[in-house]
Amino acid sequence: xxxxxxxxxxxxxxxxxxLALVAFGPAERSLGTGVRLGYLHGAWVWSALISFAAAAVxxxxxxxxxxxxxxxxxxxxxxxxxxxWITYLPMSFWTxxxxxxxxxxxxxxxxxxxxxxxxxxxxxxxxxxxERPAEGSLLNxxxxxxxxxxxxxxxxxxxxxSPIFSSDSxxxxxxxxxxxxxxxxxxxxxxxxxxxxxxxxx
Length: 202
Description:
Blueprint: H1 7-23, H2 35-65, H3 68-100, H4 108-130, H5 133-153, H6 170-194
Helix pairs in contact: 1-6, 2-3, 2-5, 2-6, 3-4, 3-5, 3-6, 4-5
């Protein structure tokens, strides 16, 4: 009987695959190979947003069905989404430094990202202190609602909301979609790793 491979193993494999994709990503005429860091930065923030959305959706279903197991999954997804969002910030600074030799701190979306990183941390602290999956799921839903509302109302100066998906290059779109998928697989494996199996019992 074969041994069951653990989430940390799959996490490492998915991270290695993700890094390989970045290393061999298509270069850009003006930015050269530095744009590859931009690809990772973009895929990372998309993964954070999708993970936040998943935490909210699972939380809503868990609250509506009164299934504590789903509420706990909402908490785990929220924790990973918060980690992705916070680590996206230094990656953003690094990307600006490599590609534009400076930090553009007046970017409205960047200021919003910093503000919501602090809010996300406070939400996680509140969830930890409350130790109530229902209230935690509700906080996840409220946070995602506030984030979506703020993103919709905040302009973006440095580049369009989705410079890659608005590109004419089908190859670039396919590549970036695969990179996002690799980031999401890594996020899911991390979620499985930190999730407590005992929390699945109502």
